[in-house]
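Pasting as-is:
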Amino acid sequence: SRRSRDDRLVRVYGISVLAALSESSPAHVDLAEQLMRALVTYDQSLNNAKMKYSFRSPSHNKKQRLWQALLLMSSLLSREACEYLADYIYSALSSEHQPSVKYVCQWTLVLLLHWHPSLWPSYWSKFQEIKSHRVPAMCSLLCVSVHMARLLGP
């Protein structure tokens, strides 16, 4: 349908813009950080709406695309912005129910930890906190740990 084709075209243009941003440009980094904070705020509003959503529903697609954009622009973020995003990911992993969205959150966290080893202490702190409270995010953090172990090697 025409609407579906138009929607795909907008997404392609959006991805093209994000992919064209350069971490060597302070203006691009600033834009990415502002966009990251806006997307986190939008994700929080979607969570607060308490709407039920299922795989491939419009609300699921919004969250999936939102997290894909965050994943794509995560390489542009400063260490402070990465800390902010990592903290938000920990809470998102505890509340998110769709596996496809959780996977993108996990991979975003893997990349943040890989690019910013200074985030490891907060990761292990959150890991211990989640372990002691039996929060559903434990499986996600275990997956992140396995991916990081493979990425970092022996």
